[in-house]
Amino acid sequence: MINFKSTMIQDDEIITSLKKSIQLKEVCQEILRQRIIQQAAQERGISITAEEVQTEADKLRYEQNLVKASDTLAWLTDQLITPDEWEAGIRDRLLSKKLSELLFAKEVAKFFVEKQLDFDQVLLYRIIVPYAQLAQEICYQIQEGEISFYQAAHLYDIDERRRYHCGCEGKVYRWNLKPDIAAIVFSARTGDVIGPFTIDQTSHLLMVEEFIPAELTNVRYQEILNKIFKEWLDAELNYMLHS
Questions:
Q1: Any bridge partners for residue 12, and if so which?
Q2: Are 204 and 128 in contact (CB under 8 A)?
Q3: What positions does the domain PpiC occupy (predicted)?
């Protein structure tokens, strides 16, 4: 039973709501994943100290701007959890992090090397217009120096956000593009007009402003580690459910 702002909500009501919103399966799977993590950690002698929990709690309080103890208690109350439950959640996340490091830290660099091309990025600009004839005319104007790619995007693109940003799509991974288009984009020269292409009944012009070679940064290291760990965890869950 949960007391939500002086209104009592029964446990079976929560379960029924999860079923109605088709979320119960995922909640149950998450519980089983945590069991797998706890068992694997125990088998490998991994534990979390009170000091580690405190350090992480202090970090989270700083991120939430919870300066006073009373601020933290008020925030936890609003989240419908107790301090002990909050610390238990922190402990679970730290345990997961330690286990993933122990199991797969050495695999990250290997994975990155094997998939390095996929992590290459471009700073991409795009113009989308409704007709191929218009796209071709814009392309000619840009090539003849009558207008810049940025000006054309600002004037002609069908999307308001992209017009405002003069066609800027931002940093785009190779896998974000269709394979045939990715091959052309990543072999183009910066500043060249690429296209037009017909995609979903609209015409596209592309331009690469910058090529960004893949680097194994701390952020990317963590992304890869999380991916490998999740795949392992899902495989363990599948084995548990079907063994």
A1: none
A2: yes
A3: 119-210
